[in-house]
Amino acid sequence: MIKKRIIPCLDVKDGRVVKGIQFKGLRDIGDPVDLAMYYNEAGADELVFLDISKTERGHALTLDIIQQTAEQLFIPLTVGGGIASLDDISDLLKHGADKVSLNSAALNNPELIRQASEKFGRQCICIAIDSQYDPKLDDYFCCTHGGKKRTDKRVYDWVQEVESLGAGELLVTSMDFDGMKQGFDLKHLNGIAERVNIPIIASGGGGKARHFTELFTQTPVSAGLAASILHDKETTVHEIKQELENGGVPVRWP
């Protein structure tokens, strides 16, 4: 049976790791290199580095910080945030990223997914989706620019499109659940899983170790992303994995 993955997420703004609630009220967490070292030793399966300052303002890729972070890791590193071209992807892979996460650029130019997949391999291409529920339309829509701008693209249509274009993985953040620590959006994740055959990383809502057991026993997603509960030491990667193992969910131990 395929082992489930626990992935800490570093949201990096101006060289510092930050975290908010529903993409707002950001507070300083610490240095990304120090946190990368900590999670590498703590048993994380992978690490996600999202440069949200580039996403917001479009500044140059912080390749130096990414390289310093990658040098501390013996686990896969996914980097996202404002990636706009094949050259950006190439630079990130050369500086230590194992995978890249595309969001706004892919929505603006879906052909970039196909081009990137053909050039670098689909295993390198993760499509990040910031999903927001519209109760009036009873549907989910993609957001861009760090969750600040909602598009007309429906999530369930988009996930099928990106898979057909060559995406190798999805990183789905349920914006309405993000930072709330009340559990993952299981219904939405199952709706996505019914439509695609590529791995899904679930993000948004994990507040306790048991929420990850619920995630993996009630949906077929491959991985769970966590940020504030790990940064604030409310739980640890080890505790989450122990909870999963006790619940019969296969995990990978260091």
TrEMBL record:
<dbReference type="GO" id="GO:0005737">
    <property type="term" value="C:cytoplasm"/>
</dbReference>
<keyword id="KW-0368">Histidine biosynthesis</keyword>
<dbReference type="Pfam" id="PF00977">
    <property type="entry name" value="His_biosynth"/>
</dbReference>
<protein>
    <recommendedName>
        <fullName>Imidazole glycerol phosphate synthase subunit HisF</fullName>
        <ecNumber>4.3.2.10</ecNumber>
    </recommendedName>
</protein>
<dbReference type="InterPro" id="IPR013785">
    <property type="entry name" value="Aldolase_TIM"/>
</dbReference>
<comment type="function">
    <text>IGPS catalyzes the conversion of PRFAR and glutamine to IGP, AICAR and glutamate. The HisF subunit catalyzes the cyclization activity that produces IGP and AICAR from PRFAR using the ammonia provided by the HisH subunit.</text>
</comment>
<comment type="subunit">
    <text>Heterodimer of HisH and HisF.</text>
</comment>
<dbReference type="GO" id="GO:0000105">
    <property type="term" value="P:L-histidine biosynthetic process"/>
</dbReference>
<dbReference type="InterPro" id="IPR050064">
    <property type="entry name" value="IGPS_HisA/HisF"/>
</dbReference>
<dbReference type="GO" id="GO:0016829">
    <property type="term" value="F:lyase activity"/>
</dbReference>
<keyword id="KW-0456">Lyase</keyword>
<keyword id="KW-0963">Cytoplasm</keyword>
<dbReference type="InterPro" id="IPR004651">
    <property type="entry name" value="HisF"/>
</dbReference>
<dbReference type="InterPro" id="IPR011060">
    <property type="entry name" value="RibuloseP-bd_barrel"/>
</dbReference>
<comment type="similarity">
    <text>Belongs to the HisA/HisF family.</text>
</comment>
<dbReference type="GO" id="GO:0000107">
    <property type="term" value="F:imidazoleglycerol-phosphate synthase activity"/>
</dbReference>
<comment type="pathway">
    <text>Amino-acid biosynthesis; L-histidine biosynthesis; L-histidine from 5-phospho-alpha-D-ribose 1-diphosphate: step 5/9.</text>
</comment>
<feature type="active site">
    <location>
        <position position="130"/>
    </location>
</feature>
<dbReference type="InterPro" id="IPR006062">
    <property type="entry name" value="His_biosynth"/>
</dbReference>
<feature type="active site">
    <location>
        <position position="11"/>
    </location>
</feature>
<keyword id="KW-0028">Amino-acid biosynthesis</keyword>
